[in-house]
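OP here, attaching both records as promised.
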Amino acid sequence: MIPTTYYLALSAILFSIGVIGVLVRRNAIVIFMSIELMLNSANLAFVAFAREFGTLDGQLMVFFVMTVAAAEVAVGLALIVAIFRSKASIDVDAVNLLKG
C-alpha cells in the first residue's frame, strides 16, 4: 500500500509546477493549462485524504472542483478567442493594451 505522504508530495510538486507556469509564462493558453494543473493537484490531495480517513468527503470536493474547472475553461477559452480575434495575439501583456 502506498503511503499518503507520497500522494501529498506528488500533489505539492504538481502544484509548484503549476504556480511556476502561471508566474513565468506569458501565453494565455499555457497559463490556463498551469491553472488546471494546480486544480488537479488539489484534487489529488483531496482524494489522498479521503482514502486516508475512509470518507467520501474528499471525492465529493473533487467533483465540485472539476465542475468549477470545466466552467473556468469554457469561459477562459471564450475570452482567449475574443482577445485573439481583436489583437491577433494571446500574449498576456497585450491584454493591458485593451484599455479604453
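Record two, same layout:
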Amino acid sequence: MVQVSGISRRGAVAAAAAAAAAPALGGASAQARERAFTSVPDGRGDRRDRPNVLVILGDDLGWADLGCFGSTHIRTPSLDRLASGGVRFTDGYSAAAVCSPTRFGLYTGRYPGRLRGGLEEPIGTPAEQIGIPPEHPTLASLLKGAGYETAMFGKWHCGFLPWFSPLKSGWDTFFGNMSGAVDYYSKLSSRGLDLYEGEVPTESLGYYTETIADRAAAFVRDRHDGPWLLNLNFTAPHWPWEAPGDRAVSKEITARIEAGDRRALRHDDGGSLDTYRRMVEALDTGIGRVLKALRDTGQERGTLVLFASDNGGERWSYTWPLTGAKASLNEGGIRVPTILRWPARIRPRQVSGVPVSTQDWTATIFGAARVEPAASHPLDGRSLAPYLLDGARPPGHDLFWRTRSSRALRRGRWKYLRASGSDALYDLRSDPREQANLAARNPGVLKDLAARWEEIDADLLPYPSP
C-alpha cells in the first residue's frame, strides 16, 4: 500500500500514472507497500458497530474520467474528496466488460456465468425470463436478513417485470429503470416508459442523474438509526449524450424512439467531449449531495461508501494509459475507477494497487457487516476486510473474465488475454497499455494462466448458441 499525504490535481495525475505501472502483488517491495496499509485502531470502539453501506455505480465511466484518476478537463471535486477520505484503488476491475453481468457479480458475489442471466451481454429482451432468480441470495437479501434496511435508486438491468425486480431480490425500496438506458428527461427506453416506483410505472421529467441523487439524499436524511444498505445506480455517463439542460436533445431522441427508431438511444450521431464532461460533472454533483446528507445527519463516520463503474468507458471516455473500451477485455474495458471510504475504520489518503474485482466487494461488505454468505451459494469473491481493517496481507487470488469471443485472467503482475483467437501475455507492472506480448518469452506463465482460466470456466454455465 502506498500512502499519500494529500491529493492535488497534478499529484493525482502523477499518482495515477505511477500506480498503473507499479506492481500490485509479488516481490518484496510490493508486499512491504501493501503491509503499510493503515486502519483506525480498534480502541476507538467503532468496530462493534455494523456500518451503513452506500454502493454507488457509475455507468460506462472510463478509468481516468475523474480528477483523482488523472482527468485534466473533467472536474469531480466530490469524488476527489471521497478518494482523499479513504482509499483509491488503482487496479479496481468490473466483473465484466458490459453492465448486466457486472451487476450480477455485485449482487450475488459470484461469477456472472453461474446464472443464465449473467451470460447476456447485456440483458435486453423483456420477453425472455432471464434475470437474477428471486430465490437466489443477494447482497440485499442477506443484509436484510441481518437487520439492514435496503433500498435501490436507479438502474437495475438484472431482468424485467413481472419475473424480476429489486423488490423480488431483497431490496425494500426501489425507484428506477429496469433496462440498460433511458432518455435522461422523458425516461423512455426503446420499449417505452421505463421508470418504476417499486413495480408500478411512474413519471418524472427531471434530469435523471439529479432525480435519483435527490431520492438517495432524502433516503439518507430520513434514516438515523441504521444499519442500511443503499445501492445508488446512475445511468450517467451512459448514452444518450444529454447533459443537464439539454431538453432539445431529449425531445429529438424521444421523438425518434416514439417513431420506432430502436437505435435512437444509442445516439450515434450525437455527443461531444463537452457534453460528456457536463454529464460526468453532474454525476459528481449528485454524489456530492448524497455525501453531504451523510455529513449533515452525522452518519458519515459510520458509513462504508464504495464507488465504482459497471465497466470501462465508451466513445467519449478518457482511459489513458489503458487501451480498449467497454465490451473488450483489454484494460480499458474492465479496469474502472474504484474508491472506498469508511472513516470509522479506515484512515484517509491511501492508495492501493491490489487487484480487486466486483465480486470481491460483495464479500468485503459481508465481512465488514459481519454477515455470513449463504453456504448454498458460495461466493467467488474474496473479502478485503482483513486487509483493510486488520492489516493482513491482501488476497492474492486470480481475477477471471470471459465474453463469447474472448477471455482474460490476471494473476499479480501478469495478464493472460485471448482476443481474436490468439493468446497474449502482458506484464501490467511495466505495460498497462498491453502493447508488448510476452507469451513467447514466458511460455510457462502463459500455460499456467491459461490452464487456470480453463479450470474456472469449466465450473460455469456455457454460453447458449447464438
